[in-house]
Design brief:
By secondary structure, the protein is of the alpha/beta class. The protein is 50% helix and 12% strand. The protein has 19 helices and eleven strands.
Length: 452
C-alpha cells in the first residue's frame, strides 16, 4: 500500500504518532502490515515500527504481566493464563484471538514465540510483535498486550562446546526481544542441569546460575517503568517429571545469587507432556497423561514459599479438550499452547489439498536429512511440517479470504473453548487493576517519516 494514505489517519510530531481516526487506522491495517512484513529489509524495520507506534496510539500497548502474576502469588484467582505460540497465518490467527478475547471479556492471555520458532517460522521479534499489535488494532482491542519470548533456551550441545558463544547468543536474543517490546521472557537453562553431580542443588546449579545471569541482563535493559516478567524452568520438557526437591534446589539457589531487583514470576515444570505430543506410526497422537497432582503441589510451593504466580505447563495444546479444566483446578498459573493450533490449520478441510501437498513436498525435499530411520512418513511429516510456515510465509498470507476465513473460524472456536476451560473469561477487570502499561515510544527512521 502507499503509506502516504496514512496522512489522513495519523499525525506525526516530535511527541510521536497521534491517531486521528482509529476506525480508519484499523481499516488500513491489513495493507500496512502486509507491506511491512514483505518489504525489503532496509524498509521493513521502519514500517514495522510504524505499525507498533500506531497500535500504541490506538491503545493496544505492549505490557508485562508481572503485576497480575504478583497478585497470583498473593492469592490465586482461579484461572490459568494461556500463552499461545502462533507459527503461521500469524496476522489472521491473532485477529481470531482478539475477536474471541473481546467477545468473552478476556484480558489475561499471552502471545509468544520460542527461540526455535523464531528461526523456522522466519519471524524475528520485531516482526512478531508488530503483527500481533496490528491484529489488535484491526479488531479494536485496547489494553495491555502481553508478548513473550518462550523457551529462550541455552542449547546444551552448543553450551558444552562453547559456553561464551551460546550465552552470548541468548543474551543477544533477549536484547533484541526486549527492544521489540517483549516484556515477558522465559529463560530455559534447564538443559544445563548436570545429573552427574551428587546433590540436587549442584545438579541445578548450572541452571539457576545461567538463569540469574540472564535475568540480571533483563533488569539492566528493561525500559524505565517496565518490570519485565521473567520465568525460569527446572524440568526439560519431555524428560522426567519435576519434583518438589528440584524446585527448592533451583529457586533457593536462584534466590541466593540473584541480587538485581525482582526475581522470577513463574516456574516451568515437567509433568508428563512433550512438545507437539507423541506421534504414533499412523500419524495419530498418543494419549498424554499429565501428573496433575505434581502440578498442584509444585504450584502451591512456588506460590506460598517463593511468592511466584505458580507452575507453568508446557506442551499442552494436543491434550483432549476435557483435560483443560484441570489447570485452574490445580492452581497452574500459565499453560503453553502451540501445536494444536498448527494442526487445525494444516488439517482443515478448507485448506486446499494442492497447497498442502506443495508444502509437504517442500518439507520432503528441504528437510529429508532430518527424517529418522525408524520414522514412518506420517510421523516425519507431523513432526516436521511446522517448518513449512517460514520459507512459504508469503504463500500462506496470499491464500484467499475464502480459504483463510473458514480456517480462522475453526481456530476461533478453539480459542473460545480454551478461554472458557482455563477460566480467563471476564478477566479484563483484574488485568486492568494489576497491570498498568507503560507506553515506550520508539523513534521512526527518517525514511519512513519522509514518506508520511
Amino acid at each position: 500500500m502507499d503509506i502516504k494514505k496514512l496522512r489522513d489517519v495519523i499525525s506525526v510530531s516530535k511527541d510521536g504518532i497521534a491517531v486521528k481516526d482509529s476506525s480508519k487506522a484499523a481499516a488500513m491495517m491489513d495493507g500496512l502490515i502486509y507491506e511491512a512484513v514483505f518489504s525489503p529489509d532496509d524498509r521493513k524495520k521502519g514500517l514495522l515500527l510504524l505499525v507498533k507506534e500506531i497500535a500504541k496510539a490506538c491503545g493496544a500497548v505492549p505490557a508485562s504481566i508481572q503485576g497480575l502474576y504478583e497478585e497470583m502469588g498473593r492469592s490465586y484467582p482461579g484461572f490459568t493464563v494461556p500463552a499461545m505460540n502462533i507459527r503461521g497465518l500469524t496476522y489472521d490467527s491473532c485477529r481470531a484471538v482478539f475477536r474471541k478475547a473481546l467477545q468473552q471479556k478476556v484480558g489475561a492471555f499471552i502471545f509468544e514465540i520460542a527461540r526455535s520458532e523464531i528461526g523456522y517460522t522466519k519471524q524475528r521479534p520485531l516482526e512478531y510483535s508488530a503483527v500481533v499489535l496490528a491484529a489488535a488494532v484491526r479488531e479494536g482491542f485496547r489494553g495491555p498486550v502481553f508478548i513473550q519470548g518462550d523457551h529462550f533456551q541455552l542449547v546444551r550441545k552448543n553450551f558444552l562446546s562453547d559456553p561464551a558463544a551460546e550465552t552470548g547468543y541468548v543474551k543477544g536474543l533477549i536484547q533484541e526481544a526486549v527492544e521489540a517490546e517483549f516484556y515477558n521472557i522465559d529463560i530455559d537453562s534447564s538443559t544445563l542441569v548436570d545429573l552427574e553431580k551428587p546433590t540436587l542443588k549442584e545438579q541445578q546449579r548450572p541452571n539457576f546460575e545461567a538463569a540469574a545471569e540472564m535475568a540480571k541482563l533483563i533488569r539492566e535493559i528493561q525500559p524505565k517503568g517496565v518490570e519485565v516478567s521473567v520465568g525460569g524452568e527446572i524440568g526439560e520438557i519431555g524428560k522426567k517429571n519435576s519434583t518438589p526437591d528440584e524446585l527448592h534446589a533451583y529457586l533457593g539457589g536462584f534466590r541466593e545469587i540473584f541480587k538485581s531487583g525482582k526475581g522470577l514470576s513463574k516456574l516451568s515444570v515437567q509433568t508428563g507432556t512433550s512438545h507437539g505430543g507423541v506421534v504414533l506410526p499412523d500419524g495419530s497422537l498418543a494419549k498424554v497423561k499429565i501428573d496433575f497432582d505434581t502440578l498442584r503441589q509444585l504450584s502451591e510451593i512456588a506460590r506460598k514459599e517463593y511468592g511466584l504466580s505458580g507452575a507453568v505447563q508446557h506442551g499442552a495444546s494436543t491434550l483432549p479438550e476435557d483435560a483443560f479444566h484441570m489447570f485452574p483446578e490445580t492452581g497452574t498459573s500459565e499453560v503453553h499452547l502451540a501445536t494444536g493450533f498448527q494442526n487445525i490449520i494444516f488439517d482443515s478441510r478448507h485448506l486446499p489439498a494442492g497447497f498442502r501437498d506443495e508444502v509437504y513436498q517442500f518439507i520432503r525435499t528441504e528437510y529429508a536429512k532430518e527424517r529418522k530411520a525408524d520414522q514412518t512418513e506420517e510421523q516425519f511429516m507431523y513432526s516436521t511440517r511446522k517448518k513449512g510456515f517460514g520459507p512459504n510465509k508469503k504463500q500462506w498470507w496470499d491464500l484467499g479470504a475464502d480459504i483463510r476465513g473458514p480456517i480462522m473460524a475453526e481456530l476461533e472456536q478453539k480459542f473460545g473453548l480454551l478461554f472458557q476451560k482455563l477460566k480467563v473469561e471476564d478477566t479484563v477487570s483484574i488485568v486492568s487493576r494489576t497491570v498498568k502499561p507503560v507506553v515506550v515510544g520508539k523513534e521512526l527512521p527518517a525514511e519512513v517519516l519522509k514518506e508520511l
